[in-house]
Amino acid sequence: MINRPLYVNKIMAYVDTPFVKILTGVRRCGKSTILKMIMEKLKTERNIPEDRMISCRFDSMEYEDMTAKQIYTLLKGRLSTKGKTYLFLDEVQEIKGWEKVVNSLVSDFDVDLYITGSNSRMMSSEISTYLTGRYVSFRIFTLSFDEYLTFRRQFTVVGEPKTELANYVRLGGFPATHLQAFSQDEIYTIVRDIYNSTIFTDIVRRNQVRKIDMLERVVKYTFNNVGNTFSAKSISDYLKAERRSLDNETVYSYLEKLEKAYLLHRCSRYDLQGKEILKTQEKFYLADVALRYSVLGYNADSVASSLENIVYLELCRRGYTVNVGKTSDGEIDFVAVRQNEKIYVQVTKEINSEKTEKREYERLLEIHDNYPKYVLTTDEFAGGNYEGIKTMHIADFLLSPEY
Fold first, then answer.
1. What is the pLDDT of residue 128?
2. C-alpha span between 137 and 133 (Å, rounded)
3. CATH number of residue 96's parent domain
4. How far is CA 17 from the centre of its chain?
5. For the chain, what is the largest distance between any 2 Cα atoms, rounded to a whole number of angstroms?
6. Which helix (H) or strand (E) holds 137?
7. CATH no. for residue 250?
8. Along the chain (403 residues), what's the average pLDDT of each consecutive run of 10 residues?
9. Which helix (H) or strand (E) holds 136?
C-alpha cells in the first residue's frame, strides 16, 4: 500500500472520539485502501490487537440478501469482550437501513466506527436524523498531482514535474491505474469500467432510470463542456437539435444523480458585486479528468479545460469551497474560500498574446481587496508578479504546500 497521508492523518486525529468517521467519494478513489491504512496504523502506532478490529465489505455477495437487523446481529456477535472494538464497514450504503445499524452500534456498544460509501445516500437526510452531531465526514478524491508522482515513482523513473503534468492530464488519478506501468489504452479501459459500474449500479439500477441512452447523452454533453457554464435548458435544447426530447426537469434530475454518484462536481457562480450565489448557468467538473478521455477519447483540444478541472479538484482537496466568480463583464475561474482565507484563481493553458494576457489579468485587477490572486499557466517560464498578481506554473501550484 502506498501511503496517502493527506487523508490518513486527518482521520487519525478522530480515533477514539465519539464520532462516526464517514469516507465518501467516487468509486475506486481509494476509500477501502485508506481504511486498511487506518487499521495498520492502529496496530502499529496504537497497539490495538487484530481481534478488536472488524472489517466488512458490503459489496460482497456474502451480505447481499441480509437485512439491516441481520447485519446488526452479525456485528453485535463479533464485538470484542476485551475492550473497545474498531469497526470498518466498507460500501455500507449497499445495506438498506444501514443508518439504523450504525446508530444502534454507536449507541449500544463501546465501538469506534469507520464507514465508506460511493454515493450521496451517505450524506442524506437519514444520516442527519440518526446521527445528528455524531459523525465527521471526509471527502476522498482521486490522486492529487503530488500523490500521482509518488505512485509513479514506485515503478518507473519520473520526469521533471512540468513535463509529468502533461501525463497527469492524459492519464488522470485513479489509484488503480498507477500501481504499475499500464499503457494509456489500458488505463482508459480500467477507467471506463469504473464509469460503467457507476452509471449502471449507482444511477440506473438504484434510481430505476429507463432512458439509459438519454442519460448517456447528458453525460457526454457535460463531459464535453467541462469548464463551460450551462444549464439544464442548454442540454435540453441541444438534445432537441439532435431530434431527441428531454424536458428540463429530467435533465436536472440526471445531473443531480451524476453528482450523487460523485462523478460530477457542481460549481456555482458567485456574483462578486452582489455577494450572492447565482442559481443559473453553473459549471460542472469531473471527479477525474481520465473519465472524460475514457468515454470520449483523448483530444488535445480539451487540455485547457482539463487543466481547469485539475486545479478545481486541488482546491477542493485542500478544503476550499470553490465558486466561479462573476464580474461586471466576465468571470474569474475560481473564488476559493476556506474559513477566513480567500484566493482568486485564473487558469489558462498559455499566455501567447497580449489579448490573452489582458483578459486573464484585467479581471483580477478589477477586484479591489487584499486577498491573494493567481494566474496559473503551463508557460515554461511562468513566474513572478504582475501588479500584485502572482503568476505560477500549474505544476508548481499543485505541488506547493501553501500558496
1. 65
2. 11
3. 3.40.50.300
4. 26
5. 72
6. strand 135-139
7. 3.40.1350.70
8. 94 97 95 97 97 94 92 96 96 88 94 88 63 88 98 95 96 97 97 96 88 94 95 91 90 94 95 87 96 94 96 97 92 95 94 76 91 93 83 96 68
9. strand 135-139
**What's the confidence (pLDDT) of residue 351?**
80
Q: Cell 478589477 identifies what position?
A: 366
Pair (94, 161) in one structural domain: no
Q: What is the pLDDT of residue 302?
A: 94
pLDDT of residue 295: 96
For 133, left (φ over 0), alpha (ψ -120 to 50), or beta? Answer: left
Question: Which residues, other chains included, contact 269 with Cβ-Cβ below 8 Å and sequence gap of 6+?
Answer: 229, 277, 278, 280, 281, 282, 283, 323, 324, 325, 326, 331
Assess contact for 27 and 198: CB atoms under 8 A: yes
- Residues 253 and 381 both lie in one domain: yes
301 and 329 housed in the same domain:
yes
CA distance to 140, 202, 250, 295, per residue, from 210 (Å): 30, 14, 12, 21
273 and 390 belong to one structural domain: yes
pLDDT at 402: 67
d(CA 145, CA 288): 12
DSSP 368-396: -SSS-EEEEE--TT--SEETTEEEEEHHH
- The pLDDT score that the predictor gives to residue 115 is 95
**C-alpha dist (Å) from residue 105 to 65, 99, 305, 310:** 20, 10, 45, 39
Domains of the chain: total = 2
Please tell me whether residues 121 and 153 are part of one structural domain: no
Single residue among 139, 160, 195 that ends a domain in this structure: 139
Range of the domain at 20: 5-139
Pick the last residue of a domain from 118, 139, 160. Answer: 139
The DSSP 8-state label assigned to residue 50 in this structure reads: G
Chain centroid offset of residue 248 CA: 26
Per-residue model confidence (pLDDT) at position 398: 98
Domain shared by 270 and 127, yes or no: no
Q: Contact 366/328 with Cβ under 8 angstroms?
A: yes
